[in-house]
Specification:
The complex is a heterodimer. By secondary structure, chain A is mainly β. Chain A is built from 1 helix and 28 strands. The longest helix of chain A has 4 residues. Chain B has a 5-stranded mixed sheet. The chains are: A mainly beta, B alpha+beta.
Chain lengths: 356, 89
């Protein structure tokens, strides 16, 4: 059970701590500034925050003293000769490398550049092998002008194997720390494409992918067009049938049990609100054969809450979850999602939640 | 030398403005400033070296058209204001 979480919001980075059963805001960093990603690197206890100033671009800040002081570092940037003359819009996700790769960080961007640092964010390099794949011509924006990378998952068994997911550009993996990439995703279906192109892998919109830490070949995907599961590290996917809505953005994978995952459903995709104003979390514990819907502690009337890609997190035990919505509500669960406790209903729009 | 003033928001990165910088154009003057203070560059220009979409520049009392702002000629005693455009939110 964690006693602390990072909440990246439209109006700053919030650090919440738990005292007994009560969570409260212990600190607000970067007040007023959108924070698009935050990371506590457990390898060296360093904090990172990715900011997106509406006027002045994406920025990176690092703290070596647990948030007491922050230093701005040069944010990832596209090189001047990058094909297509891109410019960074925002960092969408920030992840630590493997335990055997001290200082390595990965950043996924809009536009869909993958960046790597080997010195705790001091210097960044565009992973050009992914940027230059010929399929990039077929990538397109999903909710943004450009395609973007929102999921980066180094394999816990071998951190030179890296998986990424792109909206909209499908899922890709590398077995050599990003030097070469392979397009994966057999079985994914995109209903927004002409029927004969629905299976084109580079046109898929994986909203978010989560991996089981103890069984890393198992991955769960909330896709624009449903929920999918893979047991071969993303090479092939099976669509799962749900009794209710299968649209959404967030997914959390149980860290130990490859048969369990959580999703936060909404009416697809023109509406993107909870059905009948009643907000719920769904969970499967048998690999997607059956589903349970949990509502205890969640608003059941007049709710418009939507949980974005990085707005749902689970702890290392699989019993504690945290969830933040676009309408600024934050909840925690201490019984694997079956019941929820409202932490705050009046926060700014929440982009990302991390139990740390 | 031209005088460069910055929006109050940017006082976090340019706390001691206005700054004097030499140049025949807005871009030259900004370039001279960036040599002195490299960290300011990414707040004003994007990865391609273009003026950020939601940054606007006034020169001697006139708001410069965004597309040609960096190429705009200035006088040795010009007053430049680097502001945030309200289009940026």
């Amino acid at each position: 059970m964690n006693d602390r979480m990072l909440v990246a919001t439209r109006k700053g980075l919030l650090t919440l701590v738990r005292k007994g059963r009560t969570w409260g805001i212990a600190r607000t960093d970067f007040p007023g500034v959108p924070v698009t990603a935050a990371l506590l690197d457990a390898r060296d206890a360093t904090l990172y925050a990715m900011l997106k100033h509406g006027h002045f671009g994406a920025k990176l800040h690092r703290s070596n003293d647990d948030g007491a002081t922050w230093t701005e570092l040069a944010a990832p940037a596209f090189p001047a000769d990058a094909a297509g003359s891109p410019t960074l819009f925002q960092i969408w996700t920030l992840e630590a490398g493997g335990a055997d790769q001290p200082g390595r960080l990965w950043a996924g961007a809009l536009p869909a550049g993958l960046f790597c640092s080997d010195d705790r964010g001091e210097h960044w390099e565009l992973v050009s092998a992914l940027w230059n794949v010929p399929e990039r011509e077929k990538w397109f924006g999903g909710g943004y002008d450009d395609a973007g990378i929102h999921t980066i998952s180094p394999d816990p068994r071998d951190a030179s194997k890296v998986f990424v997911a792109i909206s909209c550009g499908g899922v890709w993996d590398s077995n050599d720390s990003g030097k070469s990439w392979a397009l994966r995703g057999d079985g994914l279906i995109a209903a927004y494409m002409p029927p004969e192109q629905a299976g084109v892998r580079e046109s898929q919109d994986p909203h978010r992918v989560a991996r089981c830490h103890a069984a890393p070949d198992t991955m769960w995907m909330q896709h624009h067009c449903g929920i999918f599961r893979s047991t071969d590290t993303g090479a092939t996917w099976a669509q799962l049938k749900l009794p209710g809505d299968d649209f959404g953005f967030a997914v959390a994978a149980h860290p130990k049990d490859p048969l369990t995952a959580w999703f936060v459903p909404a009416i697809k995709d023109e509406l993107r609100v909870p059905r009948d104003g009643a907000f719920a979390v769904t969970r499967t514990s048998d690999g997607g054969k059956t589903w349970q819907t949990f509502r205890d502690g969640l608003p059941q009337r007049e709710a418009f809450d939507l949980v974005y890609r990085h707005g749902l997190d689970v702890d290392a035990s699989g019993t504690q979850l945290a969830m933040g919505s676009t309408t600024g509500s934050l909840w925690v669960s201490e019984n694997a999602g079956e019941g929820w406790q409202l932490v705050n209903a009046h926060l700014p729009p929440i982009y990302a939640v991390r139990l740390v | 030398m031209a005088q460069l003033h910055f929006t109050s928001w940017l006082r976090q990165v340019v706390p001691d403005g206005p700054i004097e910088a030499a140049g025949r154009t807005v871009g030259d003057a900004l370039g001279a400033l960036f040599v002195q203070r490299p960290h300011v560059r990414s707040y004003v220009l994007d990865d391609r070296g273009l003026l950020r979409k939601h940054v606007c520049i006034f020169a001697d009392g006139k708001r410069l058209p965004h597309a040609g702002a960096l190429a705009q000629s200035i006088r040795p005693d010009s007053k430049l204001y680097v502001m945030q455009a309200l289009s940026g939110g």
